[in-house]
Amino acid sequence: MVLAGTVTTLAQSTVDKIEEELRKSGHYQLVWISRTYPYVVEACHKFNKFSFTFNKKRRIKNKSNLGECRINQPALPMRAIMTKLEKQGYTGLNVKGVGLTGFQIKACLDEQRYILEVNHWGGILARHNNGKCKAVEDQESITVIR
Question: Can you give the pLDDT at residue 3?
Answer without folding.
Answer: 42
